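pasting input
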Amino acid sequence: MIRYILRRLLWVVFLLFAVSLITFIIFYLLPSADPAALRAGRQPSPSLVETIRQQLGLDQPWYVQYGRYMKNLIFHFDFGFSYQNGVPVRQLIFSRLPASISLAAGAAVLWLVVGISVGIIAAIRPRTKLDRASMGLALVGISAPVYWLGLVALYLFSADIGLFPILPGANSYVPLSEDPFAWFTSLIMPWFVLAISFAAFYSRLLRGNLTEVLSEDYIRTARAKGLSERRVVFRHGLRSAITPIVTIFGLDLGILLGGAILTETVFNIPGIGRLSYSSIVRSDLPVIQGTVLLGAFFIVFANLIVDIVYAYLDPRVRYE
Amino acid sequence: MSPIRCCSAALLALVASLTVVACGSSGGDSTAPAKVGAVPVTQSLTGKTGGALTVLASADVDYIDPGAAYYQFTFMVTSATQRSLYSFGPDDAIDPVPDLATKAAEVSADGKTVTVEIKPNIKFSPPVNRVVTSADVKYAIERGFLPTVANGYAGAYFGDITGVKAFEDSQAKDISGIETPNDTTIIFNLDRGSGGVVAGALALPLSAPVPQEYAAKFDAKNPSTYGVNQVATGPYMVANDSKGALTGYEPGKKIDLVRNPNWDRATDFRKAYLDTVNIEEGNDDTTVASRQILQGTAQINGDFGPPPPVLKQIVAKTPDQLALTPSGGIRYVSLNTSMKPFDNLNVRKAVLAAFDREAMRATRGGPLLGPIANHFLPPEIGGFEEAGGLTGTGVDFLKYPEGNMALAKDYMKKGGFPSGMYTGGEDLLMVGTSGGAAQKSAELAAAQFEKLGFKPKLRLVTVDSMYTKFCNTPKANVIICPNVGWLKDFSDPQTLLDPTFNGKNIVPVNNSNWPLLNDAGVNAAMDKAELVVGTSARNKAWADIDRQITALAPAVPWIWDDSPNIRSKDVAGVINKFNGNWDLSFTSLK
């Protein structure tokens, strides 16, 4: 197992290199704005634009620029400066990371609790009204776009513009270190909005898996041996049925840690997602690179954790 | 009906109704009276001292460094924190008042010398804390030419100062043409007689003083970090620590302004009623942000206007929370005059004649958002009235705001198309901005060309790509740019016409002469007008040029924007008519 983990960690490094290289190449191949022209303002002289291009190192071939970027990153943990406002990218990213982590982690807890609970209940009460209602609602939850859900939630429940003003609305996010209670209450609506579609999907997935597992022979055997239904479902059935959930949970959480763009936008949460979007729109390559690398890191690392957890959940899985 | 279908139907009905709540109606023409929300000629400038104001903005300032700032929203901040030599009071969008200066700039008869006296007792904010001298103004302008600062208008307006080239080429340590014979006098010596424009440009934040002994170390970094360590001379400053590093600025998140303890009220025309101003950025959903302002959670808008559906509601229900002011800008659809088919004057006239500019204006919200543009100088700019004012210069192809197909076809026939329709058949590359009202405008513009038989190939990209990769790059060979426009830098008409229609300003990168107009007569007239001294003479000269340009039909002018600004009910808002947004130095809480 240790060797497996080490091999996977090396693979993480290789993957991050590949991601950074692909991002760099895409930036140059696809039409995007000219950062030097953007920086130069509205009526620059051609010589000023060229000077800025040299200052930013944009006059060099792309592979030279890439090499310099990676050298600074590896040896100095320096992500460069934003072309847009000259602020270090590392500062931009790490100042926004807590907000994204708060949003993703809280939503993850919520969707796991709700999704798994609803999935189990629906599976052990198949074809009942409860099952049909919960799966019907799950379908709505999966279909509703996050942005729309967010707006609806604001117009219904936010303290300033809502019909039923019970929760803090957009713009109310404060860091945990500043005011834990305000932090918590400001994230309740975003957590629910973000968790709804995941909870819906997970509940449907778990219901399907668990229903199938509960019809297996070994479950019949367990019941025949006189085990309680609770033990049969949780100890035997759920353990098998939940492995796909673990897999996709890793992917989903990894993606969200890199920024839940739509939810952050609706609720004005200053996270990585919003930073990614604005940097893409402004062709701010250093920031794009930084956020993409961060997102890739979270995804591959989350997958590694998932694989390790998988081995503990399913004893049949062994890694060489 | 089974219970499931019943419940599903009810659910769908709920979803549908909530969709209407969430999405609102699509933008359309407003029929509200144009005077609703109009800012009075003279606003009440008295207010209650104290309190904190919250400003909502969708994005960040372009640069927090006042020496690099070149954006209306940023000017909202810099006008409160920096004292440039001249500044615009709330009620006069045309003539600035002396701010750091004691009186109007003295321009020599030949226009080659501009002399300014500055007030002797203005101090920098902590941690610099000393009196401002003329050398600080000199350094402020010089640093605009540093590549680490790269001010976007320094070259355009201050490039004629003697010694600029040597300084830019690092052959001189300073700009020799800026003299400071004593602590309160600054003299600009120019290579050409463009003193009239230089004097006007001294109202821009580049002329706000910067202490060299403090800023030089920041300016040596690439890019300069003076912006996040800046000091102030205005009534407010961005909150900082004892070493000067800004604590009140988080890019894309917030800007906190606090009172500048070294500001002397007796030396300033500003009132500065508020104790603090908190700008909260990142409000991408402007519908939500607008509602928060109207409900009172926040107080005023920063860099966005309320979207058309919200604007309709404001006009109908709470018009006193809306302020509309001419922005000093114009939007137009540019036609590439250097390439077929728009190298043909009559074909261009046909396009302008056919264009439904009322429909174009409706994409932005209708008559409330400004008058139909009939030439290229907007209201509140010198030369506007002289060029014909609201009614226009008198050309027939701009006489019909909803378009006149008969006239258009006549021009097409004169242009060599006997059927009155374009028969060229080739696709015309048209690059517009994706998303929002800009996309609607671009799509509608494409339909206008199709009316005359053109085949526009509309490509929608981000606004930055649209400018820097396509429309601002002549070799991209874009035939039509539907989402372009220009905003004044200061109230001299040269700032509107010279960058955008002067043939000598066609450059390979960041070109703003989108039609690529290179008319010898216009170019010669502009060369002459640049050197005219005296406001009324300059206004007349540039008004004549506006008429010339309009007659050449290089673009379809369609709106002179009014800026819509909103406030909550507890705010006594004062609009700065020059900048087209709230004036933080005069706005107060009720």
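fyi Chain B has a mean pLDDT of 91.
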